[in-house]
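Much of the work behind modern protein science is quiet bookkeeping, done one molecule at a time. Below is the pair of lines this work produces for a single protein:

***
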Amino acid sequence: MLTGSFARLSECGSFGKIAMENEIFVPKNELEKRLLAAWEGEVTGEEFMQELLVSEVFMPIENNEVMPGVQRSASAVPLVLEADDGTKVVAVFTSPDRARSFLKDYPRYDGGLLTEFKWVLEKMGIGHGIALNPGCEVGFDMEPEMLRQL
């Protein structure tokens, strides 16, 4: 499941759109433009990763509210998925909008943090991977070994 590389999809036109299940991927921010460019082979994976390191991402966190506006804990609990091989993977998205449909299956994660991707790397545990835009055809999976190299 986690490949650490971009996979090509069937493209529809040359207007920066890629066909997905029942929707068209239209970039909504600079990071998504670079991600799409990497998917289309216009920039290298290394160039995209350099951009990602200084970009803002959305990280879903568990809602620990005991009442509206009051959290049970001062620490954020990110959404951690498990890959087919058992690897723990932290879910992050290029924008909160990209997370909405995916998070319908994870109702406890109705909040999130907008933060620099570099901060996510600094705070996550060793041995975790990252799934950028899980559930979206235009995404990127990073294995723990790849993240150690960053």
Q: What stands out?
A: The chain has one domain: 18-149. Residues 1-21 have pLDDT under 50 and may be disordered. Residues 18-149 form a domain with the Trna Endonuclease; Chain: A, domain 1 fold (CATH 3.40.1350.90). DSSP finds five helices and ten strands in the chain.
